Predict the 3D structure of the following.
Amino acid sequence: MSDEPPHRVPIEAELDLHTFAPRDIRSVVTEYVHAASAAGLQEVRFVHGRGTGVQRGNVQSTLEQHPLVTAFWDDPRSHLGATIASIRPGAPDST
């Protein structure tokens, strides 16, 4: 085991959710919105794929309930395969 501190990966404006287990999507989206907001991002894109629409529904219902999300919509370039969210920048006072 290394004594080096963990390498920090910068938060980007897009998160591809294909690498995450379906059961983890809601928590990943929630945590990502908080991290993106703290990083000062005002818009993020979640790539969930088209499929049956289950992941799209999970992402959008999570965004709908998130206090930092001001709006979200289907990315018209992705044919329902991605959702874009507008978020408030800056760390939240409370979650």
The helical segments are 25-38, 54-65. The chain has one domain: 20-87.
